[in-house]
Amino acid sequence: MKNRCSYKQYKAFCSGIYFFNKSLKYSTHPPIGWVSNNLFFKDPRMSLRLSVLLFISLSALYSCSTISKKDCFKDMKELGLLQGRQGSPVKYTDDLRNVCMGRNPSIDLEAYEKGFYQGWMEYCLPNRAFEMGKRSDRYFSFCPAERESMFREKYLIGKHVFELKDEEEELKERLEELKPTITTNSADSDEYHKIQKGLEKLRSEIQALEIEGAKNTFKFR
């Protein structure tokens, strides 16, 4: 599927990014700390402002037509499922109608919409957010309001697991460095045993987060 964006759509996207950057530069309430790849702030006013600007910009870009002539003859439910599972913030019913009705009058737009919403709900599952965080994927969510809070919470838990596992690898490397000298150097021996205890504590924390991240998930209905 090819992207075909109008000049107005690109202009809307660029305007959103411009005001996003301007808000960062001139805000009297600069963000205290970045969380989740710069999308969440400790300052709620800043978070709301930037979230709205980002949503407007990305929605403008997503609204570019991604429907090709070949799509007109695909299984509409499967096409909707695919787009929904990608976390797209908009569906393309109008684009399908404009591009396809002349080529395939029997196109089933209702099936497309059902597939899209099913795929969208599957994308917005908390366990998916948890896995995204564990991979340190960039956070983008256009989930329904009733799912967004848990989706974000699970992502942050997964992101913390990713960070702790990174720390675990560093400690394991340090242990390997100390091994050759722990029998001859008391300072190295003390550090070695201290790191071992720290690793045990770290692994317990990771395990607890893994359990927490797997809780309270729900299946698409």
From TrEMBL:
Q: Which Pfam families does its entry note?
A: DUF2799
The protein's matches in InterPro entries, at most eight in alphabetical order, are given as: DUF2799
What protein is this chain from?
Answer: DUF2799 domain-containing protein
Q: Which organism is it from?
A: Bacteriovorax stolpii
Supply the source organism's classification.
Bacteria, Pseudomonadati, Bdellovibrionota, Bacteriovoracia, Bacteriovoracales
